[in-house]
């Protein structure tokens, strides 16, 4: 499984290609819903040794505006070189697909990056700019924060993208809990890719561990690669924890056994301190002291 927010932020449009028509409403731009969608090749390389690839490219067929080319770029940080690349993508698409108008959608998880990407960029002299680049941008600055399961149910895929863009939001716990609440009764063929997209989209953010826990607990009946991985880890951790607890229990019993064999009375408070100790090194130390200590309390004298 690719654990990359970059992949999740653009590949979700390949998996759910009609997502853009709902997202455009959130962004305040009126694009007609597509009548059909075609996933296009992302290689924009010319017959020169310069390779250029857009992250995701879709052709949207519409009744009113004709075909549109949706180029989706996932942007993790500010990059001064990117606007020139994006302008190249737009020019190339215009030249190659003359009947389809290009749209550039940039998806971000960082507000500063999103606001940077949303600024119009002018190319050419200031007296007479030749080109103006105006990407559509989806990010934490304009995506809805969805913490209610009822809102998630209205559009599960849009809510998924929203959760990914809000990976560092203070309410990410409530956002992810609302997702698992809805996913519990979502058909598996839809739920499984949603689970994986969120796992990818959260990447190495702290929320990723929370999502793994929620999937393991709330979605225990799903058998997606992520859930199986989490449960395998849980089983291994459980076995490891069980072995550790067994070692500690036996070490405590050994301390008490030495004292008993030597005929030394063990008060209740001493017994409680020994049996409640969770450090095997301390218990081994007490075991050695129990061999020579004059009283049960004597095993603690040099602690």
From TrEMBL:
Protein name listed in UniProt: Transposase (putative) YhgA-like domain-containing protein
Q: Which PANTHER family match?
A: SLL0800 PROTEIN, SLL6017 PROTEIN
Domain of life of the organism encoding this protein: Bacteria
Source species: Streptomyces poonensis
